[in-house]
């Protein structure tokens, strides 16, 4: 019954690998999350190795690691996994070493292709595969060459299908928009997608410690968490990026995490497990109670605010699955502490 798990000790100590999304988890628009540096420094002592997992194919692992160190976040290139590396791996598996690849994207993507033993070419008609990644300089000619290559039988591998990318000016067209333009011309989508929530990037990240237990830490339920669920690994949803506790109440089953945390620091903290009653209509967690009352969830108690959200999420998810509860219906607060939490 329980979807959210508990952890009696520091969460990371139960895992061998922590797969970490970057923007919204480690930093936000190039500003470090306050708890990130201390959390990353603590992971070795918990026997948990970080893997910085990014859908961004425009930066090399060395560049990503250098950028993180510039924020005082401990990171090495060997701890970074980019979608460019995964694209190159997917193409290598398909066409073998020495295969000719049309590269549409950044120098980092071209370097990943070359590093995998593949040969970049400029002639779309000579390409056995296309490595397709984001760059602001992508032109109509680049999209046209991709279309020509794929129409001629080339294997089409893309870095991700993210519809937008975050910028100081708000969300702007991302890889998914570029892929959509080519897909419209072709009448079909790519043969291989490297990044989250698709599985290749999870498989390659987990292969860095074969047989080890992995946890995905992300801020996007539809990408980070959904991909972790598909991969069969646990996940931690943090609220330093796009998700909020209120948004979490209405998550569909495929986007529900195993743990909730205010930030990446939740990896170094214990997590109380929500406690169901025998009638399966009430949950207690850390001094808070969420209880079904007809079409409503009544919420009462006091304590750590996140424990209250844990109780509410657990009951909201279960009631939506079993009883047809409408998660958009706001919980009914009982008492000043509950009113304060829900008003925030």
From TrEMBL:
Keywords: Hydrolase. One of its GO terms (molecular function) is phosphatase activity. Residues 285-324 form the GCN5-related N-acetyltransferase-like domain. Pfam families: GNAT_like, Hydrolase_6, Hydrolase_like. GO terms for cellular component: cytoplasm. InterPro entries: GNAT-like, HAD-like_sf, HAD-SF_hydro_IIA, HAD_sf. Signal peptide: none annotated. NCBIfam families: HAD-SF-IIA (TIGR01460). This is HAD superfamily hydrolase (TIGR01450 family). It comes from Glycomyces artemisiae.
């Amino acid at each position: 019954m329980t979807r959210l798990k508990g952890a009696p000790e520091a969460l990371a100590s139960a895992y061998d690998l922590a797969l970490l999304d970057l923007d919204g988890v480690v930093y936000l628009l190039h500003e470090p999350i306050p708890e990130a540096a201390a959390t990353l420094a603590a992971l070795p002592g918990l026997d948990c190795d970080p893997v910085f997992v990014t859908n961004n194919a425009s930066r090399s692992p060395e560049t990503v690691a250098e950028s993180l160190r510039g924020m005082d976040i401990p990171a090495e290139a060997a701890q970074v996994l980019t979608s460019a590396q995964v694209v190159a791996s997917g193409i290598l598996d398909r066409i073998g070493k020495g295969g000719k690849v049309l590269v549409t994207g950044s120098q980092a993507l071209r370097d990943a292709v070359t590093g995998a033993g593949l040969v970049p070419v400029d002639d779309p008609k000579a390409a056995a595969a296309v490595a397709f990644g984001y760059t602001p300089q992508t032109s109509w000619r680049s999209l046209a060459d991709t279309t020509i290559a794929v129409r001629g039988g080339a294997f089409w591998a893309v870095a991700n299908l993210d519809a937008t990318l975050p910028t100081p000016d708000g969300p702007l067209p991302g890889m998914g928009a570029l892929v959509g333009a080519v897909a419209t011309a072709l009448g079909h989508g790519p043969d291989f997608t490297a990044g989250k929530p698709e599985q290749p990037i999870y498989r390659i990240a987990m292969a860095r410690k074969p047989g080890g237990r992995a946890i995905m830490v992300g801020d996007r339920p539809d990408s980070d968490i959904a991909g972790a669920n598909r991969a069969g690994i646990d996940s931690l949803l943090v609220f330093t990026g796009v998700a909020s506790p209120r948004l979490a109440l209405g998550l569909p089953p495929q986007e529900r995490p195993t743990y909730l945390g205010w930030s990446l620091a939740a990896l170094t903290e214990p997590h109380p497990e929500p406690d169901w009653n025998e009638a399966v209509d009430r949950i207690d967690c850390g001094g808070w109670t969420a209880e079904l009352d007809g079409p409503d969830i009544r919420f009462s108690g006091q304590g750590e605010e996140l424990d209250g959200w844990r109780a509410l999420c657990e009951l909201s998810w279960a009631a939506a699955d079993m009883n047809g509860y409408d998660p958009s219906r706001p919980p009914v607060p009982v008492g000043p502490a509950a009113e304060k939490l829900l008003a925030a």
